[in-house]
Amino acid sequence: MSTTERRPSGVGVSARDRVNLLSNGLSGTNLERGSSHNLRVTLQAIRLNAPVTKVELAEITGLTPPSITNIARKLSADGLIVEAGKRRGERGQPALKLVINPDGAFSIGVNIDRDHITMVILDFLGELRLRIVENIHFPMPDQVRDFVSRNLDAVRAAGDIDMSRIAGIGVAMPDDFGGVDLPNRPGEFGIWETVDLKHLLGEHGFEVMIENDATAAAIGELQFGHGRVAQTFFYLLVSAGLGGGLVIDGYSVSGSSGRSGEIGFLPIGRARRRPVVLQDVVSLSGLYSHLAEAGFPDPGPLDRMGTDATEAAEQWIEKAADLLTDPLMVINTLIDPDAIFIGGRLPAGLVDRLCDRLALNFRHRGASLPARAPIRRADLAEDAAAIGAAILPFSNRFLPTRSALMKIDA
C-alpha cells in the first residue's frame, strides 16, 4: 500500500460539517432518563452553532421541535443561554436566535507541575477571564493551597465573576507527582504521594476534579484547539516531565487504570541501577540538563537564548526527535490518528523545530507505514493543561459524554 501524509479531518469542510466532527454525531435520544443527555447535547449544539434557531437545533440534534422548545426554556431560565435577536430574510415569522451566555457558568483550572503553578478561569464560552502563573521549582502542598486561596480571594474581592456560578475546580498534574526522580528534586517532595488534593483545595466549597496533566491538555485541545477539526489525535505534553494524552473519535481515552499515554516512562536504557526513561531526556528537565552539560547552566528564557545556547538546544532537538520517532510511529500505526500534536511549556519555536525534525524522521524511517499523521504544534500549548483542567467541571455538568445516559435524569 502507498504511504500518505494525511491532513487532519475537517480541513476545508463547512462549518456545519466541523460541528458534526466535534460532536461525534451530536444527537439527542428519546430513551427514558435521557433528559440530562438531551440538555447537554442541545447546549453543545448551541455552543458550536451560535447564533442558531430552534428549528436548526432540532435538525442538528434529531430532537423534536417541542422538545427543543422545552429544553431552550429550561436553559434560558438557568441563565445558560440568551436570545440574540431574530433571523430575518426568510419566509414566515422571524426566528429567535440563541447563543451561549458567557456569564452563565465559570470554571477554574489549576495546573500543578514541578516548575510552576498556573490558574485560569474560563467563562461558559471557553474564553479566558483570568490567568495567573507562578514559576516555583517543586512547589510544596502548602504553596499550592496558598496560591489558589490567595488568588480566589482576589477574584472574589474584584467582583468581576459571579462566584455562585463557578462549576468547580479542575486540577491537572503529572501522575506520580512526588515519586518521579527528576533533576534537583528535593527529598521532601515525596510528601505529594500522601496528599489528599481534594481536601487540600476543597475548603472553598467547590467540587474538585483531578486529571493527569497530559490528558487534561488533550481535553483542552479537543474542545478549544485543533480538536475542532481533528477527532482522533495524540497529544504529546513536554513539561518538566513528558506525558501523552489520547483522543479517539472525539473522546478522551484514559485506559483501565487512567494511565494511557504515559510515553515518558518508556525505557531507553540504564544508568547504574536505575532505568533511564524517555522523559529523562525529552522534557524541559532533560533540556536544561543538556544545556548545563554543554556549558549553559543558566541559559535564561528558552525563547531568547544566545547563539551558542541555541545551537546546544538544536542538538537536544535532534536527540529528542531521534528518541521520539519510533514510539510515535507505533502510536501512529496503532490508533491511525488525524494528527500528533506537541504542546507544553517548550517555546513555540523549539516545538516547531522538533515537529519538523520528527516529520523528517517519519519520512525516512516510516516509508513502509500505510499512513503518516502530520506532526504539529498544538493550538493550546503553554496553558493547555490548565485550560483542560477547567473544562473538567464543565464536562461533568454540561457537556455531552458517553456516560450521560447512565446518570440521574435532570
Care to describe what's here?
- The chain is α/β, with parallel strands linked by helices and 410 residues long.
- It contains eleven helices and 16 strands.
- Strands 6-5-4-7-8 form a five-stranded mixed sheet, sandwiched between helices.
- The protein is globular and about 75 Å long.
- Residues 1-25, 29-33 and 404-410 have low confidence and may be disordered.
Q: Portion of residues in helices?
A: 25-40%
Counted beta strands: 16
Oligomer: single chain
Q: What strand line-up does the widest sheet have? A: 6-5-4-7-8
Overall average pLDDT? 87
- Written as H for each helix and E for each strand, in order along the chain, the element string is EHHHHEEEEEHEHEHEEEEEHHEHEEH
Rg, alpha carbons: 23 Å
- The structural class is alpha/beta
Q: Report the uncertain regions.
A: 1-25, 29-33, 404-410
Note the beta-strand portion.
15-25%
Question: Main beta sheet: strand number and arrangement?
Answer: 5 strands, mixed
Alpha-carbon distance between the two ends: 50 Å
**Anisotropy-based shape:** globular
Q: Count of DSSP helices? A: 11
